[in-house]
Amino acid sequence: MSDSDDEILVSMFPEPPRPPSPEPTISIYNRNKTFIKSPEDWEEIKIRLVGDHPLWGHYLWNAARSFATYLDEHRDLYENRNVLELGAAGALPSLVAGKNNARLVVSTDYPDAALIKNIEQNIKTNLTLEEQDRTVAQGYTWGRPVDQLLEISSSRTGQGRYDPIILSDLVFNHPQ
């Protein structure tokens, strides 16, 4: 969205001042011990979650935890491949793919500064420098052209595609 789009929306739907957002929280994902083969292997991922967000980015849902375990168990699905996660929030599945040798991981969520900065922080906190070089946080609005996402893949790996695409919590919404 452009600044003028934001201004139009604010003028159409004015909101009262909001109280300050709560502080971010940390959720710990503990890796299944059967996947740890050596003392150098990773054991946990600390997921920083925004304090509050209307798009539910302040929760680490069970679907993300379950899918992260599934990815850890089935590395053949993404190892040395380009991975795209849509609606990543805290980006746990993306981080597992990054730690387990995906060629490229692009972790997306709605292009809100708080959400994208949070994903970037989780990448920096949980991944080695080498893993960070293969992992990107990117804003993306569903239904918009995917050219920018394909360009990231193409410029980084020479392949303008993703295989697999992760969608762990996309249809969950309390009021629906």
UniProtKB/TrEMBL annotation:
<protein>
    <recommendedName>
        <fullName>Protein N-terminal and lysine N-methyltransferase EFM7</fullName>
    </recommendedName>
</protein>
<feature type="region of interest" description="Disordered">
    <location>
        <begin position="1"/>
        <end position="25"/>
    </location>
</feature>
<dbReference type="GO" id="GO:0005737">
    <property type="term" value="C:cytoplasm"/>
</dbReference>
<dbReference type="InterPro" id="IPR029063">
    <property type="entry name" value="SAM-dependent_MTases_sf"/>
</dbReference>
<feature type="compositionally biased region" description="Pro residues">
    <location>
        <begin position="14"/>
        <end position="23"/>
    </location>
</feature>
<dbReference type="InterPro" id="IPR019410">
    <property type="entry name" value="Methyltransf_16"/>
</dbReference>
<dbReference type="Pfam" id="PF10294">
    <property type="entry name" value="Methyltransf_16"/>
</dbReference>
<dbReference type="GO" id="GO:0008757">
    <property type="term" value="F:S-adenosylmethionine-dependent methyltransferase activity"/>
</dbReference>
